[in-house]
């Protein structure tokens, strides 16, 4: 049986961030994930300046695809609003693997099925023993399922369902587009270009409201595809896949003895835009700090609002007179000519 100080279930942004901080503090850390990295991950792949700061990322040296947007284009019916700000897009296929590699923690491909208490620690599948356990395995995390589900039942009214697809496409429009409440969708649709000819498009909404209103997520996808085909992505071919997660609700218990839940395992996505990467990373940093320093593990303030990040970046952009802190697309669709910051 393999033993370690801290065992982390899930190698996504929350798990790799916790591993990164714990390894820096000298802890013996092991990460388990049912997938082999790099792995396909359905996600718009939008990260905020706060995520960049929390991860101590140097955007100049990030070795994979990353674009910095100078504005978002927000659509409310016939109203189109350009929002000047600084936000970034990445490919989760690359980003998650990079974070995990940067952490320096060993990864074992293993699908966790059974978690048992063992004195002050835990035994996983009679194969791994640890003193501390961090659940970072997303909505279906086995740590949540075994130790926290009865204490933090999921609220059906906060469940988000999505359809999306990330494709290679020679996009020409440099901006990120968001369509809110289009055709009665209780959520929004998106068009997120990425560096060197990749594009993520998708639609997401609150499942219970769609069911109550007689909506179907695939109908909303068809409407988005028609909208994109008219101007933004003519000729694109899609084969969308779906997933589900939960917006931030009441999360009463996030620690049980030496076990923690983080990110989507705790249900921390922002209530306005459903952004989950930032809350996942901040909760992981808190869990690592609690283990290393013995501080209380509280998550009341880790979620916030995505629009707050956009507003702060708008103010920062204005004070910097339009100077970016990342990479920027070139006019006319530089999907294969995206400038790195050092080239600007």
Amount of helix = 25-40%
Task: Characterize the largest beta sheet: strand count, sense, and whether it forms a barrel.
Answer: 8 strands, mixed
Estimate the mean pLDDT confidence.
89
CATH architecture of the largest domain: 2-Layer Sandwich
Note the beta-strand portion.
25-35%
Enumerate how many helices there are, as a single number.
9
Number of E-type strands: 16
**Unreliably modeled segments:** 317-325, 328-344
CATH C-level class of the largest domain is Alpha Beta
Tell me the span between the first and last alpha carbons.
53 Å
Query: What is the total domain count?
Result: 2
Query: What is the name of the CATH topology of the largest domain?
Result: D-Amino Acid Oxidase, Chain A, domain 2
Return the structural class: alpha/beta
Radius of gyration: 20 Å
Shape: globular
The arrangement of helices and strands along the chain is: EHEEHEEHEEEEHEEEEHHEEEHHH
How is this structure best described in words?
It is a single chain. It contains 9 helices and 16 strands. It is of the alpha/beta class and 344 residues long. Strands 1, 2, 6, 7, 8, 9, 15 and 16 form an 8-stranded mixed β-sheet that branches. Helix 1 runs parallel beside helix 3. The chain is globular, with a radius of gyration of 20 Å. The C terminus is likely disordered.
């Amino acid at each position: 049986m393999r033993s370690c100080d801290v065992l982390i279930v899930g190698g996504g942004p929350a798990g790799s961030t916790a591993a990164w901080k714990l390894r820096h503090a000298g802890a013996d850390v092991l990460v388990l994930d049912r997938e082999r990295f790099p792995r396909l991950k359905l996600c718009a792949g939008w990260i905020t300046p706060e995520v960049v700061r929390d991860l101590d990322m140097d955007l100049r040296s990030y070795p994979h695809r990353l674009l910095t947007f100078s504005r978002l284009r927000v659509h409310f019916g016939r109203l189109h609003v350009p929002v000047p700000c600084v936000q970034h897009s990445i490919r989760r296929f690359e980003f998650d693997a990079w974070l995990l590699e940067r952490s320096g923690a060993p990864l074992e491909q293993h699908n966790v099925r059974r978690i048992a208490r063992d004195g002050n620690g835990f035994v996983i599948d009679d194969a791994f023993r640890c003193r501390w356990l961090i659940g970072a395995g997303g909505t279906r995390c086995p740590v949540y399922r075994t130790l926290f589900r009865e204490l933090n039942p999921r609220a059906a009214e906060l469940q988000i369902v999505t359809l999306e697809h990330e494709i290679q496409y020679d996009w020409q429009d440099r901006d990120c587009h968001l369509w809110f409440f289009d055709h009665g969708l209780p959520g929004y649709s998106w068009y997120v270009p990425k560096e060197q000819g990749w594009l993520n498009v998708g639609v997401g909404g609150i499942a219970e409201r769609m069911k109550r209103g007689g909506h179907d997520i695939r109908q909303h996808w068809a409407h988005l595809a028609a909208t994109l085909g008219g101007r933004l992505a003519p000729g694109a071919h899609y084969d969308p896949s779906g997933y589900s997660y939960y917006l931030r609700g009441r999360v009463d218990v996030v620690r049980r003895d030496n076990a923690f839940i983080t990110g989507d395992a705790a249900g921390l996505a922002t209530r306005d835009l459903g952004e989950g990467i930032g809350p996942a990373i901040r909760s992981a940093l808190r869990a690592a700090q609690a283990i290393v320093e013995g501080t209380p593990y509280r998550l009341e303030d880790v979620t916030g609002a995505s629009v707050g990040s956009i507003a702060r970046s708008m103010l920062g952009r204005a004070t910097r007179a339009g100077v970016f802190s990342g990479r920027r697309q070139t006019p006319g669709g530089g999907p294969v000519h995206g400038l790195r910051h050092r080239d600007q």
